[in-house]
Prior knowledge:
Elements: E1 2-3, E2 27-33, E3 36-44, H1 45-49, H2 58-72, H3 74-77, E4 79-80, E5 85-91, E6 115-124, E7 132-134
Antiparallel strand pairs: 1-7, 2-3, 3-6, 4-7, 5-6
Amino acid sequence: MITIRPMEIASSTEQLSHEVHVHGVATLNVVLEDHAVFMEFESPAMNLLGFEHAPVNDEQYALFISTQRTLANTSRLFSFSAKACQVENVAIPMPDRHSHRDSDQHQDYHGKHADIHARYMFQCQQIKDLKQIMI
């Protein structure tokens, strides 16, 4: 659950940590602007898939598709205290899902990290009534 409270914007002199890839850690950024709620979920693919490469078998491919569908199911992921919040946009650019077996070219994933980024936008008619977001 996220409780909505007014906060100060970080000054430009503060260093915000971006592009940090730590297994076991995920980030959910939430921004309220006018009548919109923007959310961005970032996680190493390892956290959600158990691997950071293109699926190499049917089990990994099924997990890849299932994870993408779960992240896209906003009605199961989020519940707003303001009843009039409606999903307007969902973008889930997943890492490369093409299996090595589907291609004659074998891309070397050794040493590379893959992240999953999910972006959501909701419109809320009564944004002033938004006090909590249940996740």
